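Z., the sequence and structure:
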Amino acid sequence: MLSFFKDYKYFAIVFATLSLIIVVIIYNIFDVYKPLPIYQPAMVNSEMVDSTLVYKKKYHKIADFSLTNQNGKTITQDNYKDKIYVADFFFTTCQTICPIMTDHMVLIQKEIKDDADVMLLSHTVTPDIDTVEQLKKYALEKGVIDSKWNLVTGDKKEIYNLARKSYLAVKDDGTGDEYDMIHTENFMLIDKKRQIRGYYDGTNPEDISRLLEEIEILKQEYK
C-alpha cells in the first residue's frame, strides 16, 4: 500500500499544480469580479496616520465635516451622500507636485463629468492663504465644474484631523507646530459608505488610469 502512494506522489503533485494553474487562467479569462479592499489605518503607512489610530483594523470611515467651497457654500458629508468620490489635499500656491495633481484631477473630472454617481473633493492644507476668493480664482483657471468638484477651505484643525484621522493621507510636519502638515501626492477613492477603497499617486499617469478603472469596479457593488 505504501508503495502505491509513493508511486503516485509525484503524479498527484503535478496534477494539483496543473489544476491550480487552470483555475487561475479561467478566473482571469472570465474576469471574475474582484472587490476593492476597504482600507483601515493598520493597512496604511503609519507616517500618514494619527498615532491614536495606527493599530485600528476595522470600521474606519470618513468623519463628518463642514467646510467652505470656492463659491462660499458650506460643504458637508451630506453633499457626498450616496456618492463615490476622489479626494486629495493641495494648496493653490504650491509649485511642486500640486500643479500635476490638479491637472490629473481635471482629467478625472473630464472622464466623470456625465456620471451622476462620482464627484471630486480637494482640501487645501493652507486655509489661511486659500480663502474663498483664492479658491474661486484657482477653480476658474483650472476649469473646475462646480457641480462635480469642490475645492474646500476652513478651520485648519478640522482639515488636519480629516487628513490624518479620516483620509490617512498626509504627514505631520514634525516641527511640533499644532496642526501643521506636509501634504502628499495621494488621491483617495471613497465609496458610498464613506470608506477608503484605494490610494493612488496623483502625479503618476498610470495610477490615474488605474483609479479610473477602479471607479468602474467600485460601481459594480451598487448594481
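The helical segments are 2-29, 98-112, 132-142, 156-166, 205-219. The first helix runs from residue 2 to 29.

Let me know what you think.
H.
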